Amino acid sequence: KVQDVFHGIDLYNDKKHRMAVMKNIKRATAVYVQNDSDTDILGAMLYSPSSRHIGWLAVHPNHRRTGIGTALANYLIRELGVSEPILVKTFLESDEPGESAHRFYNSLGFEQECIVDDKDGRNAGHPFHLLIKKECL
What we know:
The protein has helices at 15-26, 68-80, 98-107; strands at residues 30-34, 41-48, 53-59, 86-90, 111-116, 128-133. By secondary structure, the protein is an alpha+beta fold.
């Protein structure tokens, strides 16, 4: 439901993405919110405790701005603790989904650190913003 906002990457069929999802499921760093009345996944997040970063966070388009993304991010902050910064890579603010992504992460206290070129192709060749949450209260 969200792959149209990830630079056209076919997340469902992308081997690297599927391997990352499976890795995170096995190490219990994949979190999702499911609708009580059916099997729809409303939001999901992958994260790395060792590098302290959000690897992927998405909310179903019909359930955005309902607190699901915030709940996922707050879960991560509780899990990782407050001792060191937390990182996230996201779209450039000028990309179509970038403005709302920046607004979301800024509301959680993340600040723009720098723009990074996608040299390894993990972001479909698109540059991205690295955001950092320095004070995890």
